[in-house]
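In this section we walk through a basic example: taking a raw amino acid sequence and producing a predicted 3D structure, encoded as discrete structure tokens. The instruction is simple. Fold the sequence below.
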Amino acid sequence: MKSICIFCGASWGRKKEFEQAAITLSKEIVRRGYRVVYGGSSVGLMGVVADAALEAGGEVIGVLPDALMRKEVDHKGLTELHIVDSMHTRKAMMVELSDGFVSLPGGAGTMDEMFEVWTWGMLGWHGKPSALLNVDGYYDHLIKFFDNMVAEAFVKQGHRDMLIVEEQVTALLDRMEGYQAPQNVGKWITKESLT
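The resulting token sequence is shown next.
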């Protein structure tokens, strides 16, 4: 891996643990010799991610839609900042620039990004690891939902297992570094397999 993409909120969230996790993750990514790719903003956890990585001497690449420059306030100190025309272009560029993806706590936008790259992995469109950093139980309910998706036969267990979930940064990055995309899982669950 050369670059790790971090999906996270343009808000800080209620708990100090979220900000601390963003700092710890960014610094550990830099310590391991990777670049950080993220959404290009200077506010919320996105700003924390960029500032921590830059402070640690790392390279940070931001990708920000032009329509969000005023709302999310583009970060002025990045190694590179790509201004793009849409959220779709933003996600596609972030995927292209990255070798793996970590979702910190965030809102609907973070979930949109996480679900899209996980889905693309299920479809075999990339073989890159995707992970959730479950800070202070933030993703507990979502993880139960993932397991319910498997129980109700909408997602195969092999695809569920593609999504790395950890509570500690070092364990998460270790698993990402050792990730092997599953082979021959097959996308569709047939009606015959349910009986």
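Looking at the output, two observations stand out. The chain has a mean pLDDT of 92. The chain is about 45% helix and 15% strand. In the next section we compare this with other chains.
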